[in-house]
Design brief:
about 260 residues; mainly alpha; Cyclin A, domain 1; cell division; Cyclin-like_sf; cell cycle; Cyclin-like_dom; Cyclin_N
Length: about 260
């Protein structure tokens, strides 16, 4: 069954309980463990550079394989969760390449997308993996992630939080969603955001987008989200500040 990042649940899970309640209750299982954040926050050079290079390769694959943004996003999600639970041996650069290829392959399968990894292999590093090797790595990733591949991401909560805005204009709603989606995609590179739950990132991205596009509605939207019982207001404000800083830095770079 094709994965929809906006609604990652299977039909059987949707019938078992209220969808949004289930998502809030389960999202922690789809986050990287605290180990990865500890490594990155203490500036562990190996894990910082490993993650940066892996994300760079995944984004390169998006261009060379001509796939949409959701496959790379899902691949990074798999990669972050995997390296937070599995110790990565140093001095073996081929492991990074194999992990990237396997995460992309799994993400493409979840998206039910025709995706030829051959376009991405055989670059300047000279690492080319056969199908058997990739499948073994895929199984290791699946086992490490407890086969939780229908990832609950910030996209899973966007529709719910938009409903709290009470916007009546479909065009404004679409514009707000598109801008928040853009912010969420870019936020995946930001190490500081790994500690926040997907729901908090979604809510914060929508607030940043709202402050940009709909400043008059921003205070009431912020109040509605903050008042929701599953939202920790302190985490929301911290995440909002981090995302806003990220966006401001990006805008500053464009002006230079």
């Amino acid at each position: 069954m094709k994965l929809d990042l906006g609604n990652p649940l299977t039909s059987s899970e949707e019938h078992q309980s209220d969808t949004i309640t289930y998502l809030f209750a389960s999202e922690f299982d789809h986050m990287p463990s605290r180990n990865l954040l500890n490594f990155l926050e203490t500036c562990d050079h190996f894990y910082v550079s490993f993650r940066q290079e892996a994300i760079s390769l995944i984004l390169q694959a998006q261009c060379s394989c001509n796939c949409g943004p959701f496959i790379p996003y899902l691949a990074v999600n798999f990669m972050d969760r995997f390296i937070s639970r599995m110790e990565i041996p140093q001095g073996k650069p081929w492991i990074l390449r194999l992990l990237v290829v396997s995460c992309l392959s799994l993400a493409a399968k979840m998206e039910d997308t025709d995706f030829s990894i051959s376009n991405f292999q055989g670059d300047e590093a000279g690492f080319i993996f056969d199908n058997k090797t990739i499948k073994r790595m895929e199984l290791l990733i699946l086992d490490t992630l407890d086969w939780r591949m229908r990832s609950i991401t910030p996209f899973s909560f966007v529709h719910f939080f938009i409903s709290l805005s009470q916007l009546k204009d479909p065009a404004l709603t679409r514009t707000l969603k598109d801008r928040a989606t853009e912010i969420i995609f870019k936020s995946q590179n930001e190490i500081k955001l790994l500690k926040f739950k997907p729901s908090i990132i979604a809510a914060s991205a929508l607030l940043v987008a709202s402050k940009e596009l709909l400043p008059l509605q921003f205070p009431s939207f912020k109040f509605s989200i903050s008042a929701f019982e599953c939202v920790n207001e302190e985490n929301l404000l911290n995440c909002f500040d981090t995302l806003r800083e990220m966006v401001e830095n990006e805008n500053g770079e464009r002006q230079c």
